[in-house]
Amino acid sequence: MTHIIILFFATFSAAFMATVPPGLLNMNAAKTSVEKGKLNGIVFSLGVSSMIMVQAYVAVLISKFLYRNPEVIDLLLKIALVVFAFFAVFFFVTAKRNKTQKIKQVNVSKKNSFYKGVLLAALNLLTIPYYSGLNAMWNEAGWIKFEAKDITTFVVAAGAGTFSVLYLYTFYFDKLETKTNRFSKNSNYILSALMLVLLVITLIRIFYR
């Protein structure tokens, strides 16, 4: 039971941190809230989180397939290594650019808020490799065992972590808007450092295998 709790909070934290920097999804959650009301913003956020859960599940299936083939376990860790290296550079470069994020125009009506959230989340192709990398790390750490309860915990935590950030953007973006530039820069540096730590851990695991 202990590993389930660790798995949930580790995945929740990873999902939360990945969603914090202002981007297409959270900025549209804020835009929807401002233009269509907070309830509509929540519906949009639920759509995004639902798709994130689907993508997290696909990521688990990919990791599960690789892990059950002993000859590609090392490949799984190398994939995680590449993923974390990419995100470390990606977030660092994003922070260096230090550009104010603008809300992109996406017309959202009350009727299709949920589906718009699903669609925009589906367009984010980085989600699956991100969660595949995390899944590889959690598996090596012994936090996930590819059992039904573990997979469910991982998927739910990914969705919950994402929704938590979108919820904050929906209700409190007006208070953060004037600080968006500094907020974006700092959060991206933090994410870059986090990816670097995961990269080092993965390198250590590959070396000692």
Automatic annotation (TrEMBL):
<feature type="transmembrane region" description="Helical">
    <location>
        <begin position="189"/>
        <end position="208"/>
    </location>
</feature>
<feature type="transmembrane region" description="Helical">
    <location>
        <begin position="41"/>
        <end position="63"/>
    </location>
</feature>
<dbReference type="InterPro" id="IPR001123">
    <property type="entry name" value="LeuE-type"/>
</dbReference>
<keyword id="KW-1133">Transmembrane helix</keyword>
<feature type="transmembrane region" description="Helical">
    <location>
        <begin position="75"/>
        <end position="93"/>
    </location>
</feature>
<dbReference type="GO" id="GO:0005886">
    <property type="term" value="C:plasma membrane"/>
</dbReference>
<keyword id="KW-1003">Cell membrane</keyword>
<protein>
    <submittedName>
        <fullName>Lysine transporter LysE</fullName>
    </submittedName>
</protein>
<keyword id="KW-0812">Transmembrane</keyword>
<dbReference type="Pfam" id="PF01810">
    <property type="entry name" value="LysE"/>
</dbReference>
<dbReference type="GO" id="GO:0006865">
    <property type="term" value="P:amino acid transport"/>
</dbReference>
<keyword id="KW-0472">Membrane</keyword>
<feature type="transmembrane region" description="Helical">
    <location>
        <begin position="113"/>
        <end position="131"/>
    </location>
</feature>
<feature type="transmembrane region" description="Helical">
    <location>
        <begin position="151"/>
        <end position="169"/>
    </location>
</feature>
